[in-house]
DNA sequence: AACACCCGCAACCGCACTATA
DNA sequence: GTATAGTGCGGTTGCGGGTGT
């Protein structure tokens, strides 16, 4: 059948949002609520499609968003939920107030997936990967590890698809025999693998977060605005937020005034 | 200092689902 | 029952910053 695009695309702006656009969208929604996303850009004076506005609001401008890196506990919960729900990110995100499906999806794809693979777990099924596949994966890891080392030493290395590796026993965890895909025991297995790998001095590979690199969006951040209104400041904000403050000067709503945002929007929508 | 590569994240795209005429 | 509009969701892409050489 083929649906029409949600809006006329000619002449519409794409790409990163500017502070002015954020400001317009925020002001409009706070004053009028959300009734029809298609009308939002027109009424708010934005050259964007409704879909883009919706996404920007949900993923970035919503006042109840929780910013900052996901904690290890949250990460474990995501793994648990993923084992039950699969890639239903919106359902998973529903368990984390203030987190967006996009954020969780990104985190899964960039970190958790790798972490599980390195631990020998299939990120899709949460089952231990087939022995051969696992060996290959281990071989890959070892290959990278060795090649980095050997590159430093400028030495020739042996090929890694040696029979010895294939015959190597898989790490056996307690209760692994009774492992059920999708069960909560996934977490136990994860912790078991972590301990094992840490014993092998591979902790840095499993937990790259041990050496985190602070990243932040150059776009407008509500966390920054909150910090400014409350005087709170994290180390991250001192770097990014302060820089932002120094360079941008415009008024934004005081988010701590909106204790129950849902009520506000429901009220608007019911009018 | 310059370049290449890697990684994380915001944003886009297209399909699916639901409501409605 | 069918077509269409609106919205939600998941997969993918591309940009920008960080890191290594």
From TrEMBL:
<dbReference type="GO" id="GO:0000987">
    <property type="term" value="F:cis-regulatory region sequence-specific DNA binding"/>
</dbReference>
<feature type="region of interest" description="Disordered">
    <location>
        <begin position="208"/>
        <end position="238"/>
    </location>
</feature>
<feature type="domain" description="Myb-like">
    <location>
        <begin position="62"/>
        <end position="112"/>
    </location>
</feature>
<dbReference type="InterPro" id="IPR015495">
    <property type="entry name" value="Myb_TF_plants"/>
</dbReference>
<dbReference type="GO" id="GO:0006355">
    <property type="term" value="P:regulation of DNA-templated transcription"/>
</dbReference>
<feature type="domain" description="HTH myb-type">
    <location>
        <begin position="9"/>
        <end position="61"/>
    </location>
</feature>
<keyword id="KW-0238">DNA-binding</keyword>
<feature type="domain" description="HTH myb-type">
    <location>
        <begin position="62"/>
        <end position="116"/>
    </location>
</feature>
<keyword id="KW-0804">Transcription</keyword>
<dbReference type="InterPro" id="IPR001005">
    <property type="entry name" value="SANT/Myb"/>
</dbReference>
<protein>
    <submittedName>
        <fullName>Myb-related protein 315-like isoform X1</fullName>
    </submittedName>
</protein>
<feature type="region of interest" description="Disordered">
    <location>
        <begin position="128"/>
        <end position="185"/>
    </location>
</feature>
<feature type="compositionally biased region" description="Basic and acidic residues">
    <location>
        <begin position="128"/>
        <end position="159"/>
    </location>
</feature>
<dbReference type="Pfam" id="PF00249">
    <property type="entry name" value="Myb_DNA-binding"/>
</dbReference>
<keyword id="KW-0539">Nucleus</keyword>
<keyword id="KW-0677">Repeat</keyword>
<keyword id="KW-0805">Transcription regulation</keyword>
<feature type="domain" description="Myb-like">
    <location>
        <begin position="9"/>
        <end position="61"/>
    </location>
</feature>
<dbReference type="GO" id="GO:0051707">
    <property type="term" value="P:response to other organism"/>
</dbReference>
<dbReference type="GO" id="GO:0005634">
    <property type="term" value="C:nucleus"/>
</dbReference>
<dbReference type="InterPro" id="IPR009057">
    <property type="entry name" value="Homeodomain-like_sf"/>
</dbReference>
<feature type="compositionally biased region" description="Low complexity">
    <location>
        <begin position="215"/>
        <end position="229"/>
    </location>
</feature>
<dbReference type="InterPro" id="IPR017930">
    <property type="entry name" value="Myb_dom"/>
</dbReference>
């Amino acid at each position: 059948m083929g649906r029409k695009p949600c809006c006329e695309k000619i002449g519409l702006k794409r790409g990163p949002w500017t502070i002015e656009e954020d400001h317009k969208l925020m002001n409009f929604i706070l004053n009028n609520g959300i009734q029809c996303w298609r009308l939002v850009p027109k009424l708010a004076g934005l050259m964007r499609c409704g879909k883009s506005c919706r996404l920007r609001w949900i993923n970035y401008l919503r006042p109840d968003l929780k910013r900052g890196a996901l904690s290890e506990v949250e990460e474990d919960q995501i793994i648990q939920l993923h084992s039950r729900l699969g890639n239903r990110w919106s359902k998973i995100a529903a368990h984390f107030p203030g987190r967006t499906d996009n954020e969780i999806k990104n985190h899964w794809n960039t970190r958790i997936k790798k972490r599980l693979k390195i631990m020998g777990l299939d990120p899709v099924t949460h089952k231990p990967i087939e022995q051969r596949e696992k060996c290959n994966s281990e071989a890959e890891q070892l290959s990278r590890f060795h090649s980095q080392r050997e590159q430093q030493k400028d030495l020739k290395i042996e090929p890694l698809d040696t029979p010895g590796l294939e015959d190597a026993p898989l790490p056996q965890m307690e209760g692994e025999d009774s492992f059920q895909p999708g069960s909560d025991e996934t977490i136990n297995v994860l912790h078991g693998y972590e301990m094992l790998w840490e014993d092998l001095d591979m902790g840095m590979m499993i937990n790259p977060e041990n050496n985190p690199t602070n990243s932040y969006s150059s776009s407008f951040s509500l966390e920054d605005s909150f910090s400014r209104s409350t005087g709170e400041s994290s180390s991250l904000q001192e770097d990014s937020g302060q820089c932002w403050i120094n360079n941008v000067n415009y008024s934004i709503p005081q988010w701590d005034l909106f204790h129950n945002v849902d009520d506000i929007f429901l009220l608007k929508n019911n009018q």
